[in-house]
Amino acid sequence: xxxxxxxxxxxxxxxxxxxxxxxxxxEEKVEQTVHYAPAIERLGIKAYNWWNEALHGVARAxxxxxFPQAIGLAATFDEELAEKVADAISTEGRxxxxxxxxxxxxxxxxxxxxxxxxxxxxxxxxxxxxxxxxGEDPYLTSRMGVGFVRGIQxxxxxxxxxxxxxxxxxxxxGPEGIRHxxxxxxxxxxxxxxxxxxxxxxxxxxxVEAVMGAYNLINGVPACANKExxxxxxxxxxxxxxxxxxxxxxxxxxHEGHRIxxxxxxxxxxxMNNGCDxxxxxxxxxxxxxxxxxxxxxxxxxxxxxxxxTARMKLGVLDQREENPYDKxxxxxxxxxxxxxxxxxxxxxxxxxxxxxxxxxPLKKSALKTVGVxxxxxxxxxxLVGNYEGTASRYWTVLEGIQEYLGDEVRVVxxxxxxxxxxxxxxxxxxxxxxxxxxxxxxxxxxxxxxxxLDASLEGEQGDANNEYGSGDxxxxxxxxxxxxxxxxxxxxxxxxxxxxxxxxxxxxxWADEHVPAILQGWYPGAQGGLAIAEVLFGESSPEGRLxxxxxxxxxxxxxxxxxxxxxxxxxxxxxxxxxxxxYGLSYTSFAYSGVKADSGVVGADGITVTARVCNTGSMxxxxxxxxxxxxxxxxxxxxxxxxIRKLHLQPGESTEVKIxxxxxxxxxxxxxxxxxxxxxxxxxxxxxxxxxxxSEQLTGQKVTxxxxxxxxE
Length: 714
Description:
By secondary structure, this protein is of the alpha/beta class. Helix content is 29%, strand content 17%. Strands 9-14-13-12-10-11 form a six-stranded mixed sheet, sandwiched between helices. The chain has a five-stranded mixed sheet with strand order 16-24-23-18-19, with no helix packed on it.
């Protein structure tokens, strides 16, 4: 659904904001530019804290539905589902806000300005915060980002349900340990081809209310004071009308980390003068001195405040004198049965089946007497939620989900197997102190489900992840600690083995790919994740997720982590063969494509439309992700790029016609100045349920259809 705005109403908000700001003293104005904005009682302005989080559910503010982490949602390749999830999040957000306001609570994490989604590109699997994103592809990230923004902000023509924030502009994806002093060197081509498209989509299609700047420098210029991006590109070229907020403490980095200014006053002035309106932190308190010294025009502060107060009016939170339909959302919707049902459905649809040799999955409950569940993530709540999480009233780990599903009919035996990353479970225990138990569980079991991977204590934001590696980034792509040894011991038992990986990023499970018959990627599947995984393992539904990131064989095939060039990175530019490719995922059923064609062999001004008939040729209902990739030959061009997605759900024997429109600009390539050029010549479109690479074909036994086209002179 497109955004409908009452422009007359929105313009009235802005005029009213201007009048309000004109009545403020300089000191009052400055106090409103930090995230903990105080009340101005003489003007009837309430206190408001701008800092709130809703990455995959309302976070850090008590009970809320904890949905699958963003990278898991990305695996659905479903923009409409992203909007549905975000709509549920903002419903709970409004309900909690209404309850908190009634209780007189306006503290941090209690507002309606949600600093989500994270639309940074997951360019390197070592980045600890990658699981906050929608993956490595700019098109997929754009589609999921727009869906999420629309769900958060709603479709009322007069009011925002909540305010979304696209972050972190712009080239930001690690390393975490040096982010406060790091300079991301990025070519204009990579910037506009890879790092900025999702921001453009969120601004122009999603009408996102806010954008957050990143910590790092971009080509020597602080992201939170980057005039070229924040003002010239976002506002002037792309029409951004919202407000810009700094990442927390980022302006302080100007003089303490980057050392491009000497004082807090200079840092505050630099940020404000170059497009930052709101400071998460306290540096903007120095704006009073900056204005008094002539370093910042007071009119620029006024401009920032008009944007901020307009946002509060759009939300209807500045006062309660006007009719706002969202004020009526009751607290009873929070953690309700419909929310839990949606959460489990989404968790199920996130799961990616990576391997299923001999159709080991789905498991047949009637054929089993004892099931073993082994591993540090078997009963690990942290591995359900990722970071920036809320608090669920009930968590279902993988072990608990399997126990619930099997009930008393099948015995479940379990072992932690090993610590997630240390060499023993008990502090005073000996090395590998659960190995005998692993062998004992395997001996009892008809089938063993190994639950391995990571959690947000190992990968996350600097300062949040408390791993032994320090910053939150991964040192490599291996299973940490003794997990590989535990897995090899399980396989050596001779029992059928299913590997369930819970992680927010790609792991190099090469040995498992060779020796384990079934592998399921579960991401961080949310509070209902264990139930969803159990039901998929036992065939209540078919896995339908697709990988939003490439699974590599090793970190050794990657460029240096600090290198922000896209050369050699992601499916678009990698030179080797993936372990598991972007866009890949198996199913319990099968789909056949027929009649794939374009409405023209020539790409003209209106682009082309590709059609196909897709049929579920298997014996089980399932979801198919139809993917359209474009390849345009050119020096340094991507191998191919995702440019169209359609999500289908078909019953056995059911078929449907799919149409994907590919606009002319989808066939363009960016030049060295970051300009999109659509040049005449040959082009190729690939349509199917996967990317057009040899490894995907090898893994699925399926080929995609290639259409040879010609791009006409404009």
